[in-house]
Known about the structure:
The structure holds two protein chains of two kinds.
Chain A: E1 4-14, E2 18-25, E3 29-35, E4 54-60, E5 68-76, H1 85-101, H2 109-123, H3 130-144, E6 163-167, E7 172-174, E8 182-185, H4 186-197, H5 215-224, H6 231-236
Antiparallel strand pairs in A: 1-2, 1-4, 2-3, 4-5, 6-7, 6-8
Chain B: H1 6-14, H2 22-34, H3 39-53, E1 55-56, E2 63-64, H4 70-73, E3 78-85, H5 88-97, E4 102-106, H6 125-132, E5 138-141, H7 147-159, E6 166-169, H8 185-193
Amino acid sequence: MSGIEAIVLQTRAFGEADRVVSLLTAAQGRIDAVAKGARASRRRFGGALEPGTAMVAELRRGRGALPILTAAHEVRGPASVRDDLDRLMYLTYGCEVMARLAAPEQESAQLFRLLQVWIELLEGDGPVGVGHRLAFEAKALTFFGAAPALRRCGVCGRPLEGTVRFRPEEGGGVHASCGEGASVQASELALLDDLRRTPLAQVHTVALPDLEPWRLARWIEHLTAGALKSREMLAQLGL
Amino acid sequence: MSEVDPIKQAVQHLRRLPGVGDKTATRLVYWMLRAPEGTIPELSASLLRLAEEVRQCSVCGDLTGTDPCAMCADPRRDDALVCVVEHPQDVLAFERSGEFRGRYHILHGAISPLDGIGPSDLNLRSLLERLRGGQIKEVIIATDPDVEGDATALYIGRLLAGVDVQVTRLAHGISVGTEIEYADAVSLARALQNRRPL
């Protein structure tokens, strides 16, 4: 497992001296690997284990269940993102979403590319806001293979119009006569679908009326059975 | 009488300490058993004092046996400068440098969205209270140069945007003594961004 292009999603302490680093790769999905000595000293990996850092990872099988990250080459860490609180929060959120959705040993080229584009967007000079986050979430869900029904009823398949219901258990938007869930305007779901289909760099061209900002995040939480920890901070900052 | 063997019990407790495994814990217990009379009671008493007397300083948040702490009570220190750090141990690091004669403020952590740690979990309210006094002219943010430290620094910068005080952050870059050839790319990029005229 040498020379794998990867993006760091997050790390956690592992024993006294080591860290477990979650990497997103195109060919093998999420790889959790042990970075030996990464807690005890920053000399070996430097800033290479920060969320959003792209690298070519050298991995080898260890005696434990997890592979060992032996080296990180061609390290490219997010730079300008780290000078902007909002963008930094969007970066950590994007990494957490990917850590949740990307499965181990499963080809994840589309999720990998989406995260690359997300980081490029955050590193750029253009505006980034709630619409971009919603578009990112919608695309991530689609590439994960769990896109919610947004234009057609998740139960009967007929077009959604007027006031409808929205519920993960029903597959997304449904007619009131087809299922239960929170009331929502079909136009709002259609707008989410527009965002899903719009390239991230062009999202600012989509007009955003009042939207429930966490509808898709909650969908991700439902699918992955747990709250997204970084969501609270985003909410506090109005992101 | 306790049914648990006291040696085993002591080993189990010592094993909880950072960096202490089974062997080290056992070695420490047998060292204490062979130590001069009074060693164990004195050690026990000092540990009990930690639990009973050490509190957070009501001014800076440092861990101390007196309130305010010795650093906050020292009249020779510069009231106009406050250095904001993540952990009490960071204060010791600055003091070792001998370069800083201002005051400190300890956050007791850093914003870490991926761990669910937000601003309300940090010792920030008392920092704002200190700034209301008007004596502080500069706040030096000395959080770690990682994503959590960056997020914390940026948040504090935003929090203090409306306050009449200069907010600065420690310079980042390659460590003294490092050979550039071996510096990691991220640190080198930071060093380039933070370069200064000669």
